[in-house]
Amino acid sequence: MKASWMDKFGGRGKLIQILIIAVLILVVLPLVADTFRLNLYGKYLTYAFVAAGLVLCWGYGGILSLGQGIFFGLGGYCMAMFLKLEASSPENTAIQSTPGIPDFMDWNQLTALPWFWEPFRSFPLTLLLIVLVPAFFAFVIGYAMFKRRVGGVYFAIITQAIASIMTILIIGQQGYTGGINGITDLRTLMGWNIQTDFAQYVLFFACGIALILCLLAGQFILNSRYGQLLIAMRDQEDRVRFSGYDVANIKIFVFVAAAVMSAIGGAFFTLQVGFMSPSFVGTVASIEMVIFCAVGGRLSLIGAAYGAFLVNLAKSSLSESFPQLWVVAMGALFIAVVMLFPRGLAGLVSDYAAPVRNWFASAFKRETIAASGPEIKPGAPKPAESKAREDVSIASAQESH
């Protein structure tokens, strides 16, 4: 039977779940939150991009990356470089010894803009580089690792080491990157003040829509032929390899896809928060991103988005009242996830929602049969009953996937 367009995104059930999260983000949150809180919620949503990428990479690909902060930071720095150049016009920097360059370069006695900053004078090129730079970097790492069959815990440790190296590099090259302070004082985008209340609303909606599109793209990948290969590779890598598939290429693709998602989140983070620093690139930030995914559910794109939002919401709430306890709470939360509910919040919801879903499916089936019963002649086929049984079967198959 030919698959419908809904089956390409996980079926009707998954689309309804994505519709619910879209309504929560685009309707409910803007109605209940003031501008300050909405800006915070927008920041939380940027981490949902990383969590969704980790679902593809870790949950379905079996590749645990402890360096997703690298790509989040690369996307964020690309956007920050464009915004900083816009804020560093000769008129705005007339008091500097070298007008027309970012202030931290002037403080570090640079007299000309470095060559790798030049492409970020163009906004369309910046948007392209937000995707291409992290994708290229992920491709280089993936090609070097996966072609040599480096995986498992070794890959996780190497990505963690690369995140540490990136942090040290950014801090050490203060004249080019802003050092430990990062790139700050970002105020306008193409002449538009991004610090106004209206701009915060617009950026929140843009981030929410981009997240929904990312979730749909992730669902499309998982329900394609490549998604089936991804699951097969995670469970039986040798069998996939012996079947003639290049396992390394499959891993490289999913790693690059996760990196691109993280970079898009990083770019929106810079726009909404107004700066980017190396603290979002290092190992601590990267491990926190893994916890976001684990709490939400590493086998659920939608669950990971909820996990990123809820963990960050709890982090802000606890940090306001008990700033010293958050680190302990984060560690306890990760231990609880691993020991008590390894499938995360999505697994808990699936377990407790299954009886309710089955009850609705049975009720729907009975009503359909009762409604079509008097019209069925003895010995004739029962199209309505078979249709109901087929719908229930498809729904069950979609939910189990």
Explain what the structure shows:
This protein has 401 residues and is mostly helical. It has 16 helices and two strands. Strand 1 and strand 2 (192-193) form a beta hairpin. It is globular.
Q: Secondary-structure blueprint of this entry?
A:
Layout: H1 12-32, H2 35-60, H3 68-87, H4 103-107, H5 123-146, H6 152-172, H7 174-177, E1 188-189, E2 192-193, H8 197-222, H9 225-235, H10 237-242, H11 247-273, H12 283-296, H13 301-321, H14 326-339, H15 344-372, H16 383-400
Antiparallel strand pairs: 1-2
Helix pairs in contact: 1-8, 2-8, 2-11, 2-12, 2-13, 3-5, 3-11, 5-11, 8-11, 9-11, 12-13, 12-14, 15-16
In short:
With 401 residues, this protein is mainly alpha-helical.
- Note the total helix count: 16
Amount of helix: over 70%
Q: Profile the largest sheet.
A: 2 strands, antiparallel
Distance between the termini: 18 Å
Mean pLDDT figure: 87
As residue ranges, the low-confidence spans are: 382-401
Quote the beta fraction: under 5%
The structural class is: mainly alpha
Shape: globular
How do the SSEs run, as a string of H and E? HHHHHHHEEHHHHHHHHH
Sheet with the most strands: spatial strand order: 1-2
Number of DSSP strand runs: 2
- C-alpha Rg (nearest Å): 24 Å
